[in-house]
Amino acid sequence: MEYRKLDELKVTCIAGAEDFAFFGITLDDILDRTEGARRFLQKVKTLAGQSQGVEWTNIAYTLQISMLSNQQVAFTFSEMIPDYIASLRHSLMLADIQTKEPLEEFIQTLEKAPEDRARQLVARFERNVRETKE
């Protein structure tokens, strides 16, 4: 695997078929979000941080998966607030009417907040989402 640090809290990992085979998964596992794929992505995120000197905060986590030409896949792990906001904006397209307005307000609040405050708001938001799912 090849790692590239893109920003303070953003790293891309390029993986190929041999990397998937080493971890005992396939690209289909990634696309189907299997348990093996989840473990793979957790391990790759950890390795990406270690190899690039990134100390993950585990707040505002996003993952972008991009298919590359030579049967490789790019996994971009980010904890950057702008990336998190972009992800929330994508979620707006799928949101129901009840969720859409509060989510838009939350996005606007994040965009105006200083970095530390935005991280606090995201941490609280993510905690509430987890509690709601349980």
Describe this structure in words.
With 134 residues, the protein is of the alpha+beta class. Helices cover 58% and strands 18% of the residues. The protein contains six helices and four strands, in the order ββαααββααα. It has helices spanning 17-23, 27-32, 35-52, 81-92, 97-112, 115-133; strands at residues 2-7, 10-15, 62-67, 73-78. The chain has a four-stranded antiparallel beta sheet, with helices on both faces. The longest helix is centred in the C-terminal third of the chain and has 19 residues, at 115-133. The termini are far apart. The mean pLDDT is 93.
Reported for the largest beta sheet, the result is: 4 strands, antiparallel
Number of strands: 4
Topology order in helix (H) and strand (E) letters: EEHHHEEHHH
Derived structural class: alpha+beta
In terms of DSSP E residues, the strand content is 15-25%
Taken from the alpha-carbon principal axes, the silhouette is: globular
Rg from Cα: 16 Å
Q: What is the percent of helical residues? A: 55-70%
* Total count of helical runs of at least 4 residues: 6
Q: How far from one another are the termini?
A: 35 Å
- Strand order across the largest sheet: 1-2-4-3
Poorly predicted ranges (pLDDT <50, ≥5 residues)? none
Mean pLDDT: 93
